[in-house]
Specification:
By secondary structure, this protein is α/β, with parallel strands linked by helices. It has 10 helices and 5 strands.
Length: 233
């Protein structure tokens, strides 16, 4: 299933959530990638490099890419929103690792406060100039937080942390893609992967269909029956 043949609703989406997980084919390591959009889902297996991102998104997609901090996503030249759930989780781990360090706890609280302010901003009710002003204000506030300048990740990705403020409706986290990958990861733990290229393409195609149906509130079993009963085009 090539990206060019996939659902126009996915390609035309204002944003896409992306994530990846390990997937072995005939004992060879590889990765299964998911691209989750409001209109549908797309699964593909490949390496764990920017080539997959470039091949899938290419010139077809013009919206916001929502993803974690994996460097391969840097290949996308459009707007990117990095996942706040990943960032806050790592910050929480730092607090737990240094329970006696009050400065770390204060820094974590400051970062969370800036994020909560961003989430509370009603971007849809504001015109574009106001959204961009708020975006810059939040960036400056985060950089000035207790240890903001000492956090390498925040410093490197500060320009991609508040993109959701500029583009109303864009999620600040990557939960959609993670949820879509979960059934595939469960299958991998049971089966160990697939045995051939044909098996892999079949698995990715079925995952694309099933998760797209679920996204539209359809029962995959009933949707399969309907598809099998439909006349071939």
């Amino acid at each position: 299933m090539e990206w060019s043949r996939h659902s126009p609703a996915v390609r035309a989406s204002p944003y896409i959530n992306a994530d990846e997980t390990g997937w072995r084919e005939n004992g060879v390591n590889g990765y299964a990638w998911v691209y989750s959009a409001p209109g549908g889902r797309y699964f593909v297996r490949g390496g764990r490099d920017k080539g997959v991102v470039e091949r899938v998104l290419g010139g077809e997609f013009r919206g916001v890419l929502v993803c974690d901090f994996y460097a391969a996503y840097n290949a996308y030249r459009g707007p990117i929103q990095r996942c706040w759930v990943h960032l806050l989780r790592d910050i929480r781990e730092q607090v737990e690792a240094h329970p006696e360090d009050a400065a770390v706890a204060t820094w974590a609280q400051d970062v969370r406060k800036v994020y909560d302010e961003a989430m509370g901003f009603d971007a849809a009710a504001c015109h574009e100039e106001q959204r961009y002003k708020e975006h810059w204000r939040l960036r400056e506030a985060l950089q000035q937080s207790g240890r903001g300048k000492l956090c390498r990740r925040i410093a490197s990705y500060i320009h991609q942390l508040f993109v959701f403020v500029i583009y109303p409706g864009t999620p600040s986290e990557n939960n959609a893609a993670e949820r879509d990958l979960r059934p595939l990861a469960t299958t991998r733990k049971i089966s160990g992967g697939t045995r051939s290229d044909t098996g892999t393409r079949t698995k990715m195609t079925l995952s694309t269909l099933f998760r797209t149906w679920v996204a539209h509130g359809l029962n995959p079993y009933h949707a399969c029956l309907q598809m099998l009963k439909s006349p071939q085009v």
